[in-house]
Amino acid sequence: MKISLIISTYNWPEALALCLESVLHQKVLPDEILIADDGSGKETERVVAEYKNKFNIPFIHIWHEDEGFQLAKIRNKAIAKASSDYIVQIDGDLILHPYFIRDHRKFARKGSVVRASRIYLDREFSEKKLTKRDTKVNRFDKGVSNLFSAFRFQLLWKYFEFNYKNKGNERWEIHGANMAYWKEDAIRVNGYNEDFKGWGPEDKEFVARLLNVNVKKRFLKFGGIVFHIWHAINAKENLGNNNCLFAKTKKLNLTYCDNGIDKYLKSSD
Question: Which residues sit opposite 227 in a β-bridge?
């Protein structure tokens, strides 16, 4: 099984550099890295060029013009370009635990989508890590929240796999910042819905359609750990419209979106 690591980013080169530094320190590397860049400027381009030279695996920068928050679109473009069967998807404001890719590889199962945990870092601690490009995080460090979730304990994976945050409305809950799925499943539901503009919840709607075609949601608890770098909360001007799209998918049990990944698959043939 080959893994494509998709990293989404937008105009925060310092965080992307720290994220990529943590990828360099993985015990097991992905088979390729794709930077899903939603219209960043030259500073991000320089970081991408710097780290591309540090990896001896395929490293692809996918960029489009900045026309506002279009995370669904740039993720679709990256998924279409991915050459691996399995996709691990993160945001570029994360520090990855050294066993992150190894854990996702070990946990992968056909016919499932995986959610894993984010551990939050406070502002002061985040700024120190960004300044030094320091990827080492101890769960007992001052500035590390949700300490319990920061433990890596493989023996408990099976217990939490289907029993954690998987009932009622929680079944749709997922963080696009740390999730994994099979490319064939993403294509089956036509990827992300590009009618989503601005922040959220495009990731939950994508997962809702996966669940509607009987893909199982599994939670990787105490593994696949990431540390979230502090930042100000994103603006949510279009959240009302986005929530309506999400509600429609749930109510009608939709399995496919019209404005999705298919256009990029056709253009790459």
Answer: 95, 119
Long-range contacts, 77-80 (Cβ 8 Å, 24+):
77/36, 77/264, 78/6, 78/8, 78/34, 78/35, 78/36, 79/6, 79/183, 79/186, 79/187, 79/191, 79/192, 79/261, 80/191, 80/261, 80/264, 80/265, 80/268
Longest dimension (CA), the chain: 51
Strand pairing report for 59-63 and 32-37: parallel
Homologous superfamily of 3-267: Spore Coat Polysaccharide Biosynthesis Protein SpsA; Chain A (3.90.550.10)
Cβ(82)–Cβ(183) below 8 Å: yes
pLDDT band at 200 (very low <50, low <70, confident <90, very high): confident
Q: Residue 157 is encoded by which pair of tokens?
A: 């994976």
What is the tens place of the pLDDT at every residue in 59-72? 999 999 999 889 99
- Nearest alpha-carbon partner for 257 in 14, 108, 73: 73
Tokens of residue 106, six digits? 């070990």
Q: pTM surpassing 0.90? A: yes
Count CA within 13 A, CB hemisphere, residue 171: 15
- Does residue 261 contact residue 186 with C-beta atoms inside 8 Å? yes
